[in-house]
Specification:
The protein has no helices and 11 strands. It has about 120 residues and is an all-beta fold.
C-alpha cells in the first residue's frame, strides 16, 4: 500500500507562486500514475496534472503554461509548481496515486488548501 502526505498550500496574491509537495511512502514501486486534482468551491473535483511512471506530465487546459508537474526523489515525491496564480485557482488540492495493473489501488492525500486573493 501507499500513503501520501501533501504540503505547501497557503494564501497568495494573484500573480504569485506556490509549490505543492506530495511525499509517497510504502510500496512506491507499485505506483503507475501520480496526479494532482483540485476541488474548487461548489465544483466537482478536477484533474490538474498527472504523470505516468516513466512518462511525461499532462495538464488540464486551465493550468497549462502556468503549472509544472515533476516527480523526483526516486519517484517518492510529486511536485506541483504553480506560477501566475489566479483567483480561480483557489481550491483544495489533492495528491492521488494509482497502482500498476495487478496491484490495484487508488490512494488520496488529505488535501491542502490554496487560496488566491488580493
Amino acid at each position: 500500500q501507499v500513503q501520501l502526505e501533501e504540503s505547501g498550500g497557503g494564501s497568495v496574491q494573484p500573480g504569485g507562486s506556490l509549490r505543492l509537495s506530495c511525499v509517497a511512502s510504502g510500496d512506491i514501486g507499485d505506483i503507475n500514475l501520480m496526479a494532482w486534482l483540485r476541488q474548487r468551491p461548489g465544483k466537482q473535483r478536477e484533474l490538474v496534472a498527472s504523470i505516468v511512471t516513466g512518462g511525461c506530465p499532462t495538464y488540464g487546459a486551465s493550468v497549462r503554461g502556468r503549472f509544472t508537474l515533476s516527480r523526483e526523489n526516486a519517484g517518492s515525491t510529486l511536485y506541483l509548481q504553480m506560477n501566475n496564480l489566479e483567483p480561480d485557482d483557489t481550491a483544495v488540492y489533492y495528491c492521488h496515486a494509482v497502482g500498476r495493473p495487478g496491484v490495484d489501488f487508488r490512494t488520496w492525500g488529505q488535501g491542502t488548501q490554496v487560496t488566491v486573493s488580493a
